[in-house]
């Protein structure tokens, strides 16, 4: 099954976006580079927000990224996930950022294939705060395959 069909089958919604202040996904050569997409969930991991809630928030970010990629490219088909950067709004002693950002990586593996085009490089970092008080922010780079 194609990436686009898989995403639709698992319930990801694709909606047209109105251009805003910044480009949510820009093409440069054969790459699509997303802006950071913040979670709907607000709060700080390690201070009221659980790792499981953070995982869901990271998945939410990845769904938003896929919608932006779809808006820029018209489909998810023919893409390879190259790099994911996950930012976690967390306390200084919280050490499970990688488990939180698994929410984004697992969704990308599901859509593009863990052993194929979804197998990506990744960083998962903790931050003292994120814009709007978001719990998680994720950005990604995709290759447009020839």
General description of the model:
- It is a single chain.
- The chain is an alpha+beta fold and 146 residues long.
- The protein has a single domain (3-7, 24-144), classed as RutC-like (60s Ribosomal Protein L30, Chain: A).
- Helices cover 35% and strands 25% of the residues.
- The protein contains three helices and six strands.
- The protein has helices at residues 3-9, 51-73, 97-117; strands spanning 25-28, 31-34, 37-38, 79-89, 121-127, 136-144.
- Strands 1, 2, 3, 4, 5 and 6 form a six-stranded mixed sheet that branches.
- Helix 1 (3-9) packs across helix 3 (97-117) and helix 2 (51-73) crosses helix 3.
- The longest helix is centred in the middle third of the chain and has 23 residues, at 51-73.
- The model has no long low-confidence stretch (mean pLDDT 97).
